[in-house]
Sequence to fold (1340 residues):
Amino acid sequence: MIIVMTKDSSTDQLRLVEKRILDHGLKPQTFRGQERCVVGVLGTIPPDLKDEMELLPGVIEVIRVTKPYKLASREFHPENSVVMVGNVMVGGPEPVVMAGPCSVEDEEQMVSTARAVKAAGAQILRGGAYKPRSSPYSFRGMGLDGLKLLQTAKQETGMPIITEVMTPADVDIVAQYSDVLQIGARNMQNYNLLDAVGELDKPVMVKRGLAASYEEWLLAAEYVMAGGNTKVMLCERGIRAFEQYTRFTMDVAAIPVIKRLSHLPIIADPSHSTGKWYLVTPVALAAIAAGAHGLLIEVHPNPDIAKCDGPQSLTFANFSNLMHQVHAVTAAIAS
Amino acid sequence: MIIVMTKDSSTDQLRLVEKRILDHGLKPQTFRGQERCVVGVLGTIPPDLKDEMELLPGVIEVIRVTKPYKLASREFHPENSVVMVGNVMVGGPEPVVMAGPCSVEDEEQMVSTARAVKAAGAQILRGGAYKPRSSPYSFRGMGLDGLKLLQTAKQETGMPIITEVMTPADVDIVAQYSDVLQIGARNMQNYNLLDAVGELDKPVMVKRGLAASYEEWLLAAEYVMAGGNTKVMLCERGIRAFEQYTRFTMDVAAIPVIKRLSHLPIIADPSHSTGKWYLVTPVALAAIAAGAHGLLIEVHPNPDIAKCDGPQSLTFANFSNLMHQVHAVTAAIAS
Amino acid sequence: MIIVMTKDSSTDQLRLVEKRILDHGLKPQTFRGQERCVVGVLGTIPPDLKDEMELLPGVIEVIRVTKPYKLASREFHPENSVVMVGNVMVGGPEPVVMAGPCSVEDEEQMVSTARAVKAAGAQILRGGAYKPRSSPYSFRGMGLDGLKLLQTAKQETGMPIITEVMTPADVDIVAQYSDVLQIGARNMQNYNLLDAVGELDKPVMVKRGLAASYEEWLLAAEYVMAGGNTKVMLCERGIRAFEQYTRFTMDVAAIPVIKRLSHLPIIADPSHSTGKWYLVTPVALAAIAAGAHGLLIEVHPNPDIAKCDGPQSLTFANFSNLMHQVHAVTAAIAS
Amino acid sequence: MIIVMTKDSSTDQLRLVEKRILDHGLKPQTFRGQERCVVGVLGTIPPDLKDEMELLPGVIEVIRVTKPYKLASREFHPENSVVMVGNVMVGGPEPVVMAGPCSVEDEEQMVSTARAVKAAGAQILRGGAYKPRSSPYSFRGMGLDGLKLLQTAKQETGMPIITEVMTPADVDIVAQYSDVLQIGARNMQNYNLLDAVGELDKPVMVKRGLAASYEEWLLAAEYVMAGGNTKVMLCERGIRAFEQYTRFTMDVAAIPVIKRLSHLPIIADPSHSTGKWYLVTPVALAAIAAGAHGLLIEVHPNPDIAKCDGPQSLTFANFSNLMHQVHAVTAAIAS
Fold:
């Protein structure tokens, strides 16, 4: 941590800053520039020290130098982490595609979609049983019945299941019926929920919040890992920026950035980030070309009558074409 | 709802659009412009119809005309709502100030702060027992012990209490020890939590999410109201924009906008939105001048040693000055 | 400047960093923490050094400690600057109101508006002769004829004139016909234009760019001042954030922030920031309560038929009410 | 255009709206829903009509249905446009790579870079002679001497030149020495500059402004085309969002969106959007996979000593690797 003093800070102010650092069992190291005096702090910095130091008289700025996350950081875990989902390797050399409908609607829909996406090459089946919806009057998912239909589809196809959990009280039941628990963007800072999935021994995918910085996102992963569950993957699903033509703004650079800052696998969601089916394929290929470890794609037997988010769902035929191109781009960047 | 067709949409495409509208028991009304054909939809629109129509061939855009929220809307409730907190009127002609520390730390801190803010003119006491913190390693609040200290402070001063609830499982206990339940910005779209407080007969304050549009924010209020609890107030606490000098960007125009779109009281939080104590007073006065029904202000006996968010806490003396100016500005805009 | 080395940077990497600093005639000061080694740089830092240092092997981050602007900075000019416009003092204790139509349309419109805003208490007359419009097919202003009508209105009322200049070739003519030259938000980083007005001995108002940080905005002022013209005032006119209900998002905290970082006067524009006439008064009062040195307000004899930006123009009657409240709030915050 | 009336608008208010539409020689078509009355406007809508209608009593919202740009729109020009730069086809099936240093520094630097990027497969040479810099104290380019060095490099290698023009007064000289004139992001709404390049018969590349919506960006292109110059290409170079780790946020979805809305070629700039050399290759490949017609890449013989923006420049070796992968991804998506 670096503490920057104002140009005309007094010696007494400097002494107080140094004393506070020593009070925490840390060591101050002061150096004086032509225009500024700055104090370095050596040792392990408690998370709230920055706030405390900013208040002292004569201090103009406090700059954190070490990252506030450790378990999620590549510096403390240089090798890539691989998260096993059944026998599917997430974070390995091959990108993993998780596909399926936005919402579980009925058995026919789930099983036919599972068969179609499996045939096209998807490895994990997605489907929402508990749906976060901005309006209380929208369809909010089938709940436990939906989880059971996901199980049926798993039995029929052998595909592991990823599905969203929205609240701590549902963690056990969702964990029982699924292989990966998804934390949605709107819950990325629902800390009780992060704590709850941190106690599982089951993969968790943490989607980036609409307005979350990389650091906040990695701290959300850190919550899960601090609870003891290191089977964490991340998912970039678009941030909120000023452009309203697309539902969100896909931050494709997040993929190489996260790979640099963290050892955790990084997945991309071109369906939710764009909100329009005709943008899904180009953005999915972009994510693969940028190095994503996988994709999360909405597919529906008949997007016209999907119970939610139809505009971004692919038909089976379009999904099959997408998979063909995903393989080609994967081969191209590996060459 | 208005459905805009592409320039070269066919008659068959138009017929399909009209048929779908009729299938929902609604009535299409088509008119043809020089460059466009558009179809109006008359009747009560189900929330997911927009998604469905966007998918039809020949459709270029679907525009919602009625607001997706009703209970929170001024159109359906033209008079201002007043929420009573004990015998404090929130939403009436006088702005209400809710003040206190970021976190409950100990009895001495809570009681002395309660006395000081009451003496200065605050009507409601704030203090966090459950704290949402971006790092799992930060102080996360005293929990139930904190709620009990809030009660002690209430007994000593008679001030009603506002405090945050973070998860559905805590709603009952927080409701038991407080007079207003606060939904934090990071939980504005934690729908299970909104449902849970919607079942109470107790005031709820819904803070705006970091990236929430006015519509999404009002829909969060609608969740609570749809559950039967109409004692809802809103709080603008800054949005995330590109500027990083302030912690968030206070959207002061939100105050008159919300007063136009909704009948619910609107409070402003200059402490969290700015993140710097020396910005709290000017931004608080700005909110009052813009017509806010109240303020939420962090005050601490000694901000230097506050357990969280010290940089934005006011001292007792600064808070007292703030109150003096709040009264003056209130009188000025009423004149 | 602080250079942060990676955890496992080598001694050779550190030596290279130190050598580069010495090559620039500066002095490195190294200190080693438990997890990091950092190097401080003492002396006057050239603007491009940060870029250079970031590239060296072993360097993870470079943090600038001194601000990149000097002439605009309060640290180097602690007293408030006052800019005289005729005999109107901008930056003094009384807020200055600049009012008038978005565009100059005809003599009757300009003169009647000038008389009305003067009668209501405005000190400076605004009106656009050269209009930046997002569409090439919109009305783009009367040009020189518009400047002449501004002069007429000045002769009739004695009010000094503020008007926008869009390109270096027009600087001389606009300077000849006006008392303050306005640099619009879209031209805030039109450096040739900033250079051109920097050569004048005439007041310049620099509006904040739609996406400009405080630092970039102050650097735009620095451009003008570096050219020798220190008669600079700033204008907050709303930034682009995700909310689309208002035209832009008024960043009211910018007012106290700029007053802290800079000695230059800070004006607020509630008309362009909100884009809706019914939001202008509450946001104007908010700006005054936050400490703005003045306001820029659109007023039109008949907003219904204004040639541009009618939705945000006030009628004479509404403007007169606004002035009444501005005086009341000014007195309130001075009390 | 669709005009939405408030729930309780009166018949008189409706009549006034209809009358105004008729006054403009347009035809109103009214339909009444259960909750709303809306009026459609048939015919060619003048750009300022929306503002005018919004002001009328009883009007709650005005929605534009036709796009405000025509020449740039795919609806009015369904086939892709190809812009010829010398004999290089921009907008055809093969992506075009424009590479070179941020700034022209000296002959040796320019010629060696030109040879290296040509050898690696780049088709157009970039280099800045006039540099927009946020600080007035930074290196601002060599000006005419720089243009001459670009000519030298062209003579040595046969590569056409792209370089930035910052102000109308420089348009002629820049046009004389270059093959494509670049309008930088900060000048995207410098309308005098757009007008000036609109009079040329030479290709122009319009970079997206930091805060420009797709519509504003296409309107900037429309400015150039309305002047008679249809040789326009667009360049996505990152927008300003809240994340500060990368310099800007590359909006990769802009590529397929622009291809849908417009017929103009779309180029991507991964160097400026990311600001970090190690992100350039993954983001460049992402852009190609998303369908970009070309790339703009900074390359420098020795990024460590580049006069500007060194952190994002590639070495010759890294650029050569990038080109190898660009070809592979291009082949993959064409397969």
